[in-house]
Design brief:
Low-confidence stretches: 67-73
CATH topology of the largest domain: Nucleotidyltransferase, domain 5
Mean pLDDT: 94
Radius of gyration: 20 Å
Strand content: 15-25%
CATH superfamily of the largest domain: ATPase, nucleotide binding domain
Strand order of the largest sheet: 1-4-3-2-5-8-14
Number of helices: 16
Number of domains: 2
Distance between the termini: 28 Å
Bound molecules: adenosine-5'-triphosphate, magnesium ion
Largest sheet: 7 strands, mixed
Structural class: alpha/beta
Shape: globular
CATH architecture of the largest domain: 2-Layer Sandwich
CATH class of the largest domain: Alpha Beta
């Protein structure tokens, strides 16, 4: 992936797609305008669209497993979880559309120049491990995005893979392979979003990948519980504490960490209730900064363990970090030490960490419009390659 500082668009040969991503952290909507006309995709423009406080609260409430409850005031009795779902579905679509329109303005383009928007939507529930009852649910009405932008929308990428027996996640590994084509030595990409996922890319081989567990979701939750602000900037608070080996061991007994791929997870599983349940007395008694330091180590250790089956292959593979956690200096430092390998931000490959997942959904939209599969069954465990998502014409 490269970023062109002086793009000359519209260009008749350009193949422009916009990826729209709001991940499990519900921190912002990342909008990435990419050109796929060359073998090496290019980022043309990026916009981080803030989510207004009301929508953030609504999405957080829906994403919590007790969707009818709230920390503050109870909902008005006439509004149930389905009403909340519908309201959030509409509002996120409106935010996405206005963000896209502003992104186009910034890039000096009209909607005519864009082939499609790949909208991930907000995951409000991901239950891949519910066996015969497994499901995954993203909201952000694609019909409304198409109506408000005049651009074709591709959306609902995960459910087809899940219907084909896959996890519906992670979808990023084949996109990572397209965005950061690996050299002969291969490449590992680690996405440090709310949840961490890794892609192991080797030339001429199907991509491998899996969710490894929490990246930021537990650190964010513990930070918000004890301090001002949604996250631990640069990992400074974690760095002020000391990781507690017994608590870390206790948390690592979580069966998800040892389970084989394919696997995926979310904050439905890794949340403060999980931490209190598994951490037991340590959570009550340790200084809060030591718990934060331990959670950072949990992210590092669970990633290292997930990569251990590729210990031999991964020697010499460059390790590329993306997602907001790539800005957490302490986390990056500890990952490099634990993996005993240099790690570098995706920015070094021309794509800022916050743009990678958005660019991946631009790529997924292009796959769908070109009639190409979006999933990697080698990652998700689906019965086969599938066209992912639905098309909502302009
Ligand atoms: N400067 C920073 N220092 C520490 N952490 C940061 C910084 N900037 C971002 N983060 C972390 O990154 C998180 C957001 O990352 P990102 O947007 O990649 O996650 P996400 O939206 O949950 O995506 P995903 O779906 O991939 O999990 C924030 O919640 C925060 O924890
Ligand atoms: Mg995000």
């Amino acid at each position: 992936m490269t970023t062109d500082p002086h793009p000359k668009y519209p260009d008749d040969n350009a193949e422009l797609f916009i990826g729209a991503m709001t991940g499990t952290s519900i921190d912002a909507l990342d909008l990435c305008l990419c050109d796929f006309s060359k073998p090496q995709p290019r980022l043309i423009a990026h916009r981080q669209e803030p989510l207004d406080a009301g929508l953030t609260a609504l999405l957080r409430r829906l994403a919590r497993t007790n969707g009818n409850e709230t920390d503050d005031a109870p909902p008005p009795p006439a509004v149930d979880a389905i009403d909340l779902f519908g309201m959030a579905d509409r509002q996120l679509a409106e935010t996405t559309a206005s963000g896209v329109n502003r992104l186009l303005e910034k890039a000096g383009l009209t909607n005519q120049a864009i082939r499609a928007i790949g909208s991930h939507g907000q995951t409000v529930r991901h239950r891949p491990d519910w066996q015969e009852a497994a499901f995954t649910l993203q909201l952000g009405d694609p019909s409304r995005i198409a109506e408000l932008t005049g651009i074709t929308v591709a959306a609902d990428f995960r459910r087809r893979d899940l219907a084909a027996g896959g996890q519906g996640a992670p979808l990023a590994p084949p996109a990572h392979a397209a965005l950061f084509p690996p050299g002969p030595e291969g490449r590992i990409v680690i996405n440090l979003g709310g949840i961490a996922n890794v892609s192991i890319l080797q030339p001429g081989r199907d991509p491998v990948g899996l969710d490894t567990g929490p990246a930021n979701t537990l650190m964010d939750a513990w930070h918000s519980h004890h301090r001002q602000g949604p996250f631990d900037r640069d990992g400074q608070w974690a760095a002020s504490g000391t990781a507690h080996p017994a608590l870390l061991d206790q948390l690592l007994t979580e069966p998800f960490f040892a389970a084989p791929a394919p696997k995926s997870t979310g904050p439905e599983h890794f949340n403060l209730d999980w931490l209190k349940r598994l951490g037991g007395k340590w959570i009550e008694t340790l200084p809060a900064e030591d718990v934060q330091a331990t959670l950072l180590e949990l992210t590092v250790e669970s990633i290292a363990r997930a990569l251990s089956p590729w210990q031999a292959e991964r020697s010499g593979m460059p390790i590329t970090l993306c997602g907001g956690g790539a800005y957490n200096g302490r986390l990056v430092e500890r990952l490099g030490e634990r993996l005993a390998a240099p790690v570098e931000s995706s920015a070094a490959l021309g794509l800022a960490p916050e743009c990678v997942e958005g660019a991946a959904f631009a790529w997924l939209a292009r796959q769908l419009l070109n009639g190409q599969p979006g999933n990697a069954p080698s990652v998700t465990g689906a019965a086969g390659p599938r066209l992912l998502g639905g098309i909502y014409p302009a």
